[in-house]
Amino acid sequence: MWKILIGKELRDNLLSFRFVVGFLFVVTIYTAGTVLFCKKFDNEVQSYQQSLKLYSSALESAESGLDQLFDQVIPITLKPHIAQLFTFGNETRYPRTININASAPQTGRSFAGMKPEMQSNYMLSKYWDFDWTLFVGMILSFLAIVLSFDAISQERETGTLRLQLSTGVLRKQILVSKYIAILLLLFVPIAIGTLLSVIITQIFSGYNIIIMYPIEFVFWGLCALCYLSLFVWLGIWLSSLVSKSATSLTILFLLWIFFIYLAPRLGGMITERFYPVASTEAFEKQFLAALDEMLTKAPKEYYEFYAGKESEENWQVIERFFQRSDQTLEALMNARFAELYGQAVIAERFNLLSPYSSFRTIVETISNTGLANYKQFYEDVRRYRYQIRDFIRERDLADSGSKHRLYYVRKMRSISRLAVDSKSIPRFVHSNPDFSRDVQHALPAVCELLILNVLCFVFAHHTFSRMDVR
Amino acid sequence: MIWRIAKKELLEKLLDFRVITSFIIGLVLAVVCVIVTGEDYRVRKSAYDAAVADAQKKLRNVKVFSQYQPEIVYPPSPLSVFSNGANIPGPVVISISIDRVPRYEQAEVASNPLMQIYDPLDLELVLQVLFSLLAILLTYDTFAREKEDGTLRLIMSNPVSRTKLLYGKVLGSFLILSTTTVMLFAIVLILMPTVLGVTLSTEDLFRALLIALVTLLYLSNFAALGTLASLTFHRSSTSLAVSLFIWCFLSILQPNLNTYFAAEFGSTPRLDDIQPTLEEEYKSFFLKLEHLQAQDSAILNDTARRKFIEAVVNYGSAVIYTAVADADYDVLESLIRQVKLYREIAETANNEWLLYQNLYLSELDKQLRHKRTLDLVSPAALLSYVTSIFARTDVDNFENFLKQAREYRNKYIRYLDEKGIFSTNAQLFFSRLTKDQIDPAATARRLAQYEKDRSSVPWTQNMEPLDLGDAPAFKAKDVSSISNTVLPVLLLIIYFIILIEYAGHRLQTYDVR
Question: Which residues in chain B are contacts of A124 at CB distance < 8 A?
Fold first, then answer.
């Protein structure tokens, strides 16, 4: 029975005008969109290569002496990867570079070390990124509505629903067969579009996303299925709720516009209005006040040293003071990041209002391009700063001619001036994604999509079961 | 006859479910817009007022010319609720100084770089997307449904020309769209003064009216599109599907595609890459400065003097320069020799600016022009552009402000030149004391007190501020770029005419049975 029902649905719709138009539309968008993706990805890779050069030359400062490395601002850039085809994510708009300085934790303190982007053209408005999440999230959900808005109502209008039910087919069977058929229909353009996309990406960039990220690809498929299924149930529910197809289409489209296009903009606005962060000036004041407080607690040896009275006994005390200062300043930086990050997380939570945003959040977790991943990057960079410091301390200790004073106050500093081979300096390594952290971050979004799916199914079932088919 | 047909359409559809639902959603979003974007404007306005007051206060407290650094602030526009335009985060404070030509320092402005991804909502976007959908939903079945119902035959059996029928129907849809749009505008214009306390001038109200008019022109295009679709396809469901796909492309995809093409297919130069070249421009000047300082090394390397100079480096305040100058005439003379070079740094800054323009700004400008060219075939992008001009939030408005800031800087430098700051009166840059009045001991005491209490400014406290009555004042000229709206509006009218004419042509051969 199922096969017959589903087969019937497929035959009815497969060569329908709207499906053909929709299919061509989707495939064209996938193709054109992937070419645009490749262009942007290429730009990102080139940009990353430039940043790597800056990173290498920063490390090469060690060749002029260890003290040069100690003072050097080292820029660390986020690496682009082909998994961004799943979604570029919001990460593509975050600062790609974080600056660190072995001597001073407070480099770029207003933005917790993040280097605000100067890559974008302020004269142009913001635009979306063309990635699979856009194709599925916007275009395919649009197609899902177009295919499902009259699933029940059209059959009622033409009278075939009565005929079907009079043959002893259960209402539940009709409902579920329609659902499965529409999903299978949607599968056709997605599959072909995805295949084209993978081929185009391979040709342009040389990477094959399915081979490189097979597990992520499967998860991506499941998410896309879950997301589109929501729209199909919604469409079926509304088409059984209202009497005219045109009405159900109107409601569906208006909902689509609101929740997919307009609502994602609300999260940011509401968060900035009701959960503001300290402005750059305010933070600067706070920071300077904390710095002052730290200095008031400085031991008298520090002031003696600063005034020019150096002595062997002073060093140990001062050394301990500087270590504590470094930790305090590092803590202030991390607190600032936590504040900025916290605001972004709240905005993301508000955006759960939109299933599209939730979908994007989940895919960001899969492709490692989201907020949680960025936080990981930030933490890795701060850890790397300590790695560099440890390296410098080690090399400095090896130099017997040095006074071993790794202090951030330049006047009091004195470390080894021996040249160091830059190849021996530890390199920054992006740590592997932490699965449990990712799951935790995406959990609300996943729950939301699942719950909405269940709700829409329950409503559809409830409404259709009681519907007057005459 | 046209009016009668239009009236029928209006009465039939005005309280239609589609219109009511769209209007309610539009209303909810408009209220959210007012509350959030409007509130944002209010906050920016008070920050702007505070920045202006602060800048004026600083000018009233200028004791020596090194403190004379005017600041000008870019005013936010109350109409940003209607259209965000370039969405420059504010307040943008431009400092006028000798050594740097004012420009938009993009990185300085936002508080949280992690929130830059969020583009706020404005009324224009709601209308562009939501109401254009409404226009399609109202008109996709104009003819197809009447044909299916059989009422089209009945209408055509009356002596009504087909053209008049078409115009009547389009007029009817236009009236419905006008009613909803105007109501929305009215509600926003009422909410702004009552809920937010934002007052709009007469000119602002006039501009809001212009925004409403161009929005209606835009929506008419979609009404015409829907009507054309209903005449092209015989079944209303087909006409709907096609209109919706076209709508999706025109109002959602195309504006983004245009920006994407312009941004990613040109190469955006990275400021980091050209920064070294820009800094090179200043190199020769700094070499000269170092040379001068080397010549005065005997004075500047003396221990007691060095201490003062270190105070300058550590505290970095023009006030401390005054302390140094007030304490020691030899140091003052050395500084005077350096100030006389400042005229040259103004020239260097101008050269650096030309380089910045050539290497960076001209590339950004090129991308913008590409986008504007692509936008000529995108009604949605044309609407955004025109509404941003009317709302005074477009890029050109901002760029004009920056240009005026640069011109003001030229006036500022000329003023300093005329006052002899770079020549005979160079001393006034740091100190107003004569040689006899300089008292090193007193200044040493004041400096010690300053180290304890940073807010105290002891040495210039008893001085009257300089009289800067003859200094040039900055007056922001409202250089309206309204002439730029002519072509886009003309294009929207042309597109509308083309659609209507084609629809008329199709109607002539339309089988009404």
Answer: 259, 262-263, 367-368, 371
